[in-house]
Amino acid sequence: MQKMSTFSFRAASLSFVVSRSLRTMTLALACASAVLATGCASLAPPTPVTPPDGASVEHYRGRFAVRYEQNGEARNTYGNFDWQQSGENATVQLLDPLGQTQAIVRESPRTASLELPGKAPLTGPRLEDVMHDALGFALPVGGLRYWLRMQGAPGSHASIERDPQTQRPTHLKQDGWTIDYQAYFDGSPLRVKRIDLSRDLDGSPLAVRLVIDE
């Protein structure tokens, strides 16, 4: 009886250690695969966008995955995003898999900024330059607001291919980006559910996948 009790105690202890180790490993993996390599620190979520009178706010929530190269090494990052667009002003919140805010991106016609945990905000005239310098990759926020509407952004040429039967856009090319429309929500009006974006800039490939949840 004593041997059985000792065995039961040891088994229970081992189960506790394994369970605790698995929880620790899960948390470590979540932190390691977070949007940014900033440990598990996080930012306070941004305040909701308040549009001017008569204006509306476009709101997208979903998931993203990015494959890119940094210093010759292939890297991957993924997480969730919350995007609010009011006119020409955009606020994009990037969250890690645990739901903690790891970056806040803001863009307006005059300036762009990037906030990271424990650091002063980074600013510059072009959002893509600010993001690339800080993170090693950049999301084309300025063009995406139009591509999510299945149209080219103003100011440069865009080519759009459509499905011959449904007339839904299948591919869009603009400013060096290739946008593949992979899935749509059911019903009307037509809304994009998943798109893949790719670009090769000076031999550095970048691939982005967005899945819109709402």
UniProtKB/TrEMBL annotation:
Classification via Gene3D superfamilies: Lipoprotein localisation LolA/LolB/LppX
Entry keywords, A to Z: Cell outer membrane, Chaperone, Lipoprotein, Membrane, Palmitate, Protein transport, Signal, Transport
Annotated GO biological process: protein transport
SUPFAM superfamilies (alphabetical): Prokaryotic lipoproteins and lipoprotein localization factors (SSF89392)
InterPro entries: LolA/LolB/LppX, OM_lipoprot_LolB
Keyword Flavoprotein annotated: no
One matching Pfam family: LolB
Protein localization: Cell outer membrane
Cellular component, GO, one term: cell outer membrane
Stretch forming the signal peptide: 1-37
Membrane-related topology note: Lipid-anchor
Protein family according to the UniProt entry: Belongs to the LolB family.
Subunit structure: Monomer.
Protein name per its UniProtKB record: Outer-membrane lipoprotein LolB
Organism: Pandoraea horticolens
